[in-house]
Write a structure and sequence with these properties.
By secondary structure, chain A is α+β, with helices and mostly antiparallel strands. Chain A has helices at residues 2-20, 70-76, 80-83, and strands at 22-31, 40-46, 52-59, 87-88, 96-104, 113-119, 125-133, 149-155. The chains are: A alpha+beta, B alpha/beta. Chain B: Its cofactor is [2Fe-2S] cluster.
Chain lengths: 156, 734
């Protein structure tokens, strides 16, 4: 009985701490004027070694084109469970994508990285268009992308 | 039915299909542009390793290489944190220039495949492609029907300028349009997953790699084994990621290559479905087959022209139709009027009769003679009387709307309860006056159908005669019937005589070439006409127009006719008496069947007297120098050699190949038919080359010419009827 109570309490604390330790994060991605069709984007999280952790957002509705988001596609294995409920419309040239979601505190300031892969029809695919460390300090700072991304920021 | 379908789908689809085809034509130049900038010669001997080895030093930040179907090579790289792309020479590995996709072409591509409306637009584009397919197929069937059969599909086309343009262009473009529509539809079906997914499986991403120091790319064994012209895409491993690999796509399939050992770690071949899809894609876009792309583009460019001419043809046809109001359903009608008409004028008389009977309380149904025999007699249970109003076409043939009447009538064996009356329309100056009406009457009588009234005839659309017939009909039916037919007079244009050239007074054949123009200060345009069309002229005080063949076309800015003065002829006397400055009232009646057909075959023109008029018109406009041989007969070279000076000019500038003029009132008297027999072997040679004949002149001359030509044709096992059936013998006879 005592054991059960202890377990329950421990579990409650765990759940509460998990609730407390989740934070709202807003990811803002502004695209360049690259003169092409709408871009597909995958925003995901890796550890310091670059190993995939979880998908944060996928812009672009047609899953048959997801393989062009090379880095993310390989890491996530393109399993629907990885991106289910985390997709939206593709982003047109020059437009900004802004998504807000809950992110566990455990990812912040622990060497994890945010990555963005991009792809546009009939144009090149950009693996790691953006790679930024996920830190409290880095919040609100603009990072330039290598490919179609003009500026990427995250804010808590 | 086919025509209705073709017209309506054409009208509905016009705008959509025109956008689709114009954008398609613009996109079709992409492959050739792409090819022009690519240096493709000799790439088969270069391996991927060889080229990438060269690129390693000039592009340290290289990330990806692509080879387009036309052979141009694009290198994608990152330099100072920025991405870029260059077009490179595959032999030297040197940059040709920066590469970027043209935003204009991207826009055209989106307009072409989705009308800039994304998914709903793609559905629209697919529907347009489907309509285009239907239009192409129905159009091809209509053309085959018009020309007789599929075997005769390459026969010369007759008709108005617009009709010829529509048919001719359509005949050339049909294959290109079919291919574009079918391949486009297939691509749409794949997009909308109506066809199974074509994509081959992805190669398995290697679970583990060697992870050693990466080898220099030029030394990788797998890349050495792939020739450059097999490559589609090579993606380099991510910088400083030793666990990453090279991903390669070739024409054979796709796979991954270890960056330290150079081994192919996994490979997935392209399956047949994908090969088929890629082939269809190539056929549609011309990517990798630039010449086909250009041909399809040219084919697509005909679509706006086809739409425009198609709409005009439809509009003209629609305007010339007489609409019958209060047309009772056949089942409840007590009176039926059948119309046999070629040029729609008999429909006007039928309408007058229809309205008068309607007014007298009858339930009337009016239809074409062909529609009548399409149904069984019991479809008309209440009919008491049947009227047949029919013209005659050519030499006693059935007019268009009665073409199937007699043959299908043979199958009706029962004798109906109703009685019939036939009224023939024609022109007494023709020997076969109302011949077809007579034939219909005889056939029905022979079948023992009961007669309401014996055959009557109307000469030259006479309203008086028609009204008299109406009285007879009224008496027979026991009702008062007054038929007042007011012929729809075409709107006339006033023209002024600007020049006349007189001939033939000495040989008692006073003839004049008259040239008319719009009077000064006139704010209307000349009506549109071509040489061979007819001009209707109303002599003052006459209600009936006389028709003359035109020797000029409206583009010349003048209207030219050749008139022989008949002492008792009202209109010819009026015309012959005109002096320069006098004016006439005239309207145009198209005569599209009397035209030289398009093509390179030689043309033989035969005429006598004023029959030279349209023939001179054809020669005058023979700017492409088709071989034209003219046979013409007059009376005396000193007096009535019409157009002598012009014809000699045309001989010199090659518009006319041979001039055979013969005269009947000189010592070596001769007629055209004599000259034809004399030239038998030469004419047979021309016929062997596909020659077509156009004959214009009096009826007697025309029949003599026909007899003479039958003689000429006999050794070839042909006769004039054979030529007529092939559309190679046309007459304008008066």
């Amino acid at each position: 009985m005592k054991y059960l109570t202890t377990t329950l309490c421990f579990f409650c604390i765990l759940v509460m701490s998990a609730q407390i330790s989740a934070r709202e994060i807003t990811l803002t991605t502004e695209l360049k004027n690259y003169s092409g069709d709408g871009a597909y984007l995958a925003i995901y999280l890796t550890n310091a070694e670059g190993q995939y952790q979880e998908t944060l957002w996928v812009a672009g509705q047609k899953s048959k084109y997801y393989k062009h988001l090379t880095g993310w596609a390989r890491a996530s294995g393109l399993r629907v469970s990885e991106y289910d409920g985390l997709t939206g419309a593709s982003v047109s040239s020059g437009k900004t994508l802004s998504v807000t979601l809950d992110l566990a505190d455990a990812y912040i300031d622990r060497g994890f990285q945010l990555k963005v892969d991009t792809s546009v029809e009939d144009m090149r695919d950009n693996r790691n268009d953006v790679v930024v460390p996920l830190t409290t300090e880095g919040a609100g700072k603009l990072s330039a992308g290598r490919g179609y991304v003009k500026a990427f920021t995250y804010a808590f | 039915m086919l025509r209705k379908f073709h017209s309506w789908s054409g009208l509905i689809a016009t705008l959509l299909v025109v956008v689709l085809s114009v954008t398609g034509a613009v996109l079709s130049i992409n492959p050739i542009l792409d090819r022009a900038q690519a240096k493709v010669a000799g790439t088969s001997s270069i391996s991927v390793a060889e080229l990438t080895g060269k690129l390693a030093s000039s592009y340290p930040g290289i990330e990806q290489i692509q080879r387009s179907p036309s052979g141009s090579i694009i290198v994608y790289f990152t330099e100072n944190g920025k991405t870029g792309a260059d077009l490179i020479n595959p032999i030297t590995g040197q940059p040709i220039g920066p590469y970027s996709t043209s935003p204009v072409m991207v826009w055209f591509k989106n307009l072409h495949r989705s009308y800039l409306l994304d998914t709903p637009g793609r559905v629209g584009a697919a529907i347009s492609a489907f309509l285009m397919l239907l239009l192409t197929i129905s159009g091809a069937f209509m053309l085959a029907k018009r020309l007789g059969s599929w075997r005769q599909i390459l026969r010369p086309i007759q008709g108005t300028f617009r009709e010829r343009l529509h048919c001719q262009v359509g005949r050339v473009a049909v294959l290109a349009l079919l291919l574009s529509a079918i391949t486009g539809l297939t691509m749409s079906a794949v997009t909308f997953e109506l066809l199974p997914d074509y994509q081959s499986a992805e190669p398995v991403f290697p679970a583990s790699v060697q992870g050693d120091i990466p080898a220099s790319i030029g030394t990788l064994a797998a890349l050495k084994a792939i020739p450059m012209n097999e490559l589609r895409e090579l993606v380099y491993p991510y910088k400083d990621d030793r666990n990453d690999v090279y991903s390669i796509i070739t024409h054979q399939g796709s796979g991954f290559i270890d960056q330290s050992t150079g081994q192919l770690l996994s490979f997935q071949s392209i399956n047949n479905k994908q090969k088929l899809y890629e082939f269809i894609y190539m056929l549609h876009t011309g990517e990798g087959l630039w010449w086909l792309g250009l041909l399809l583009g040219l084919g697509a460019l005909t679509v706006p022209l086809m739409s425009w001419t198609g709409i005009q043809i439809w509009w003209r046809r629609k305007r010339s139709i007489t609409t019958i109001k209060n047309n009772t359903a056949p089942r409840s009608a007590d009176t039926i009027i059948l119309v046999g008409s070629e040029g729609n004028s008999t429909w006007g008389f039928a309408k007058t009769l229809h309205d008068a009977l309607n007014l007298a309380g009858y339930l009337v149904h009016t239809m074409s003679m062909n529609s009548f025999v399409n149904s069984a007699l019991n479809s008309y249970p209440n009919v008491k009387q049947l009227f047949i109003l029919t013209a005659t076409y050519g030499d006693g043939d059935a007019p268009a709307s009665a073409s199937r009447f007699l043959t299908q009538l043979e199958q009706i064996t029962e004798v109906p309860k109703f009685s019939f009356a036939v009224l023939g329309f024609g022109d007494r100056q023709f020997p076969e006056f109302c011949q077809y009406a007579k034939e219909v009457e005889a056939t029905l009588t022979a079948k023992a159908w009961s007669q309401l009234l014996p055959l009557d005839t109307i000469n030259r659309q006479s309203s008086q005669e028609f009204s008299r017939w109406g009285n007879t009909v009224g008496m027979a039916m026991g009702t008062d019937l007054s038929l007042v037919h007011i012929p729809t007079q075409p709107s006339c244009t006033t023209l002024a005589l600007i020049e006349r050239v007189n001939y033939g007074a000495k040989v008692k054949a006073p003839t004049a070439v008259l040239r008319f123009k719009l009077p000064d200060g006139s704010n209307t345009d000349l009506p549109t006409f071509e040489a061979g069309d007819l001009v209707g002229i109303l002599a003052p005080g006459s209600k009936v127009a006389r028709f003359y063949s035109l020797a000029s076309e409206s583009k010349d800015g003048i209207l030219e006719i050749c008139v022989r003065h008949h002492p008792r002829g009202l209109c010819s006397s009026f015309l012959y008496s005109l002096s320069v400055g006098d004016s006439i009232e005239a309207f145009i009646k198209p005569n599209p069947s009397f035209r030289p057909a398009s093509g390179k075959a030689p043309i033989v023109l035969i005429g006598a007297g004023t029959g030279i008029g349209p023939l001179v018109g054809f020669i005058r406009h023979n700017k492409s120098h088709h071989p034209i041989h003219l046979y013409w007969g007059g009376r005396c070279p000193e007096s009535d050699f019409l157009y002598e000076r012009e014809l000699n000019t045309y001989l010199k500038d090659k518009r006319l190949t041979a001039l055979n003029a013969v005269f009947s009132r000189i010592n070596e008297r001769s007629y055209v038919q004599d000259k034809i027999v004399l030239d038998s072997s030469e004419l047979r040679g021309l016929i062997g080359k596909g020659a077509q004949f156009l004959v214009c002149g009096g009826r007697d001359m025309a029949s003599s010419v026909m007899l003479a030509l039958d003689e000429v044709l006999k050794p070839l096992g042909m006769d004039v009827l054979t030529l007529k059936a092939q559309g190679r013998y046309r007459e304008d006879v008066y």
